[in-house]
Structures
1.
Amino acid sequence: MAETHAGPIAVTGNEAVAEAMRQINPDVVCAYPITPQTEVVQLYAQMVADGAVDTEFVTVESEHSAMSAAIGAAAGGARTMTATSSQGFALMWELLYVAASYRLPIVMTTVNRALSGPINIHCDHSDTMGGRDSGWLQIYGENHQQAYDNCLQSVRIAEHMDVRTPVMHMYDGYVISGAIGPLVILQDEKVRDFIGPFKAINPMLDVEHPVTVGPFDGLHGWYFEHKVAQNRAMDRSFKVIQDVADEFAEITGRHYGLLEPYRLDDAEIAIVVIGSTAGTTRMVVDKLRARGVKAGMVRVRVFRPFPHEAYAKALEHVKVVGVMDRADSFGAQGGPLFLEIRAALYDSDPRPQVLPFVYGLGGRDIFPDNIEQAFAVLEETARSGKRATSERRYLNLRKD
Amino acid sequence: MSEVLDIEQFLHTERLPHIWCPGCGNGIVTGAFLRAVLDLGLVREKTVVVGGIGCSSRAVGYIDLGTVHSIHGRALAFATGIKMARPDFTVVVLTGDGDGAAIGGNHFIHACRRNIDITCILFNNQTYGMTGGQVSPTMDPGDRGTTAPYGSIEPSFDLCRLAEAAGASFVARGIAANIRPLERLIKQGIQHKGFSFIEAVVPCPTEYGKRNPPAGVIAMLDDTKARSISVTAAAKMTPDELRDKIVTGILYEDDEAPEFQSAYAAIVERAQAGAAEAPARPKQPAAPRKPRKTAPERPPARNGEAADASGLPLEGGE
């Protein structure tokens, strides 16, 4: 790929992220192939082999090893990245907690794909939703440009001294990862300036100052306090994420927040959604607006930490909110996003109704019609003024 | 022709055509396995086939026996559970070099060590075909994958030697280019009581072949055929003569090695007879392993001559 482009170029989502990684030029990348992420590290391996980057590229024998190696590299004092999807993400699970608790600023691209079983290779968000309590920051992108932009910003956020916590950024498998879309690429030097040099904290490779990482300090040790410190970093990261986004906007003109409202100011009904489906939802909102329906939308960008106050502020005037989950939390009141939004609005007075929708599991198509059906439920609920049941409503579920 | 029709009873024909690329050897190995099932008179009700993840493991989706499409690397662990629950079942694992030897390598050596009565057929195409040709643990040093565009610098596993060293009591290798012997090995492996490992060398013209000579389906099949040599012939050859050769046949067999499930059943019986009555088992030194049928020296890696001390090919990239 050429280094600079005046206008947008056509790339797959994975190509967009590989290009961002080339510009970041991390010290170490450790990865294992898994659909639909593979292309990211495969392209990156080519860049490493061609000498386009200075990275040590480690081909490991599983994702468990990929995250273990990433932890080792980051603890050693290296700027470290990896990428995965689905089962690979699940196999990393115990290490996700370790990476976060060691406060290692690893950046991971996770291309969202359904979890087994039965085996499924298509998009939903059940993989990263399963890691939402691991202590990583989670940033979801909608399209190719956001995949690239979030990848760059993730490095700054993770390495910020107020955060110093790993960040995963996501985009939808196939819909974004494999499909071709437009991308505006920054000049290499602009990225270099934006990212800045890596600053290692207590690196193990500083042999003059030996450190111990992650030891057991006993029943009466500091584990509890350590966990509280992690959560405080999460609290501080709200501001960091926004500051980094604002700085990014200065060089790109592309603005990002913790969440992304659309036609929400006077909305009576609204949908909250993650990922590529936001594009379809936006189109449906426009269609409904043209008919005079006061419909709006919020696209989720940052899921961890969850900006509950910002959601309460954004949605408190809405009568009925529909939350679209592309993952389920079996046995819970609703999907993970629904639970967050409903909890965020608990203190609002009057309190908007929040209804759970589940869609797109295992890559099931989501059509504009399906989103219109969801809006119709919200509209009917708002008109009736009655409380609707909070049972899950499944979109595009087969009847037979 | 009739044989083809006969094995159809073990296929979900409604799911065909399969997803394997033209020239892939996986269908050949699957066919050989199903003919073994047919010849041995195995019944659907008592035969379980477990796959992991990858091109090889996709076979279980087409096979109409009891099948499990498990997760990456864990087919042997699933199979171990099934065999322990139902020792009367014939349990077969279909796996690949990435699934069985990389992410699932730990389960592989421990299944061998336990010598549990499972037959593991590993489709060795030397790459991760499903995800686009990355370096696997059996890729020859110097050969190219998408994660090693100028050649792999890692030494590769000889999986048969690994299986034998880890404790498998039946170890064999066949090639997709030579179907009948492969079929016989699979049959013998299933009949063998204990852990049977059969490595089936399969061509992957789409992902491996497009980066590594010889290119083309027929050329790849001819190449493996030309390089394959029987274990008895190999025993008479020097390491230099064995360079680049694929040694086929039964490489190791020990019919007396204690099988895990049987040992487990015996200890259950002893415990249920009452601890007081059951004499403690005298500690015995481990029985010496049966010597190899033949002991060919490990042949030097393929492309060994094209690599310098670092393992990197001397010539430039493509």
Note: The mean pLDDT of chain A is 96.
2.
Amino acid sequence: MSARLTFATAGRILRQLRHDRRTIALILVVPTVLLTLLRYLYDNNPLLFDRIGLIMLGVFPLVIMFLLTSVAMLRERTTGTLERLLTTPIGKVDILLGYGIAFAVAAAVQATIASALAYLLLGLDTLGPAWLVGVIAVGNSVLGMALGLLVSAFANSEFQAVQFMPAVVLPQVLLCGLLQPRDQMAGWLQAISDVLPMSYAVQALTELGANTEPTGVMWRDLGVIVGCVIVALLLGAATLRRRTP
Amino acid sequence: MTNAIEVEHLVVARGKRRVLHDFTCSVPSGSVTGLLGPSGSGKTTFMRAVVGVQQIVSGTVTVLGHPAGSKPLRDKVGYLTQAPSVYADLTVKENARYFASLYGLGAAEADAAVSDVGLSQAKDQLVGTLSGGQRARASLACAIVSKPQLLVLDEPTVGQDPVLRNELWQRFHALARAGSTLLVSSHVMDEAGRCDRLLLVREGLLIADESPAAVRERAGTDDLEEAFLRLVQAQESVQESDKEKVA
């Protein structure tokens, strides 16, 4: 592992993003537009917006970063640049951490803008502190990024990669407690939702919405998110094979 | 003279198909060695085995005294893949600087590599907007930027115009004079004459491992294209008679 190589890679990925203005615009604009939609969808029920809008602050970045990184890493695999990198002094973990840092920067900017809009313009109201909501939102997008890096190993084309979104992320959105409280689901479904990382992300945000101070449950949830990120990155590193058939 | 690459009884399979059959050869240090053969003969597979990204069935590949692909080799071996493996959404300069940084080198070395491949004019262009030949050269710049002891170049001159091809070959020899060893693949026989040594491959079999002069002499013709054909025919008749003996 080398900090120099990790940061060189993160810088390279951010430069790639910088040349792609439209992607930057989509990263920044899409969550804000969707949040605005939600705000006026629940125009007569601000309490519901406080609940759903808050959860969406965590869900949107996860979905977007998942898509971005799964395609970015797939490109790295299919264009031969990954094979080439593996013949240079850089290590597998350096490559993945480089991705992690670069997209975490993008995610932090995205989450900050989305949160600022939600609190300042859309009137989102939470009992807990806004900065912690921002932290969890960034954590979620880093989670989306780590999952995206991992699933890119199982796709051979961009067509396949984008379909991992409905396959991997959508079930988590359905089961995370957004549509129906998790304790009212069928028992076996709740058991599944217990092992899906997004359930913890949503629970952490809900805790922040309902309590003035960060709770033990919230910290535990944040720990689960960080743990899932580390596991996904390590599994991702295991899928980077120097020798291929 | 020592050998930069020693290959002994290398066998590689892709799926159930044997791609390389019992390959044994060596590449002398400081030489420009050509790896020639038709498309699909196993050239790329051989090069991947040399840089250590190919799963092999059996045999050994030793590069600069170390097992191929092992850690001490990562800053000593440069690899140019057949399809240009550079980032299309970065400029030529940014690509070269990134690969330079992986070896702890700075912007000066990166910019020198870009001008070495004749891309100074296009250095601020996104690789995705370049022509195929320019893109291949951008990829080459990233391979030579670290001035590696061994350069493995998979078809570096494909799609380049004759003047540029000539310049590139001169550069390869200049690199060899400066102490590098080059293994260069090509499917164009007229490039064989530019190499110090030749490895001729056909259908995963090594049919010649000698200097161009020796190939010409053995085949009894000055035309290397013709010489290659004759060596193939000679080998096929050997195989036929072997089969008859077995029968």
Note: Chain A has one domain: 3-239.
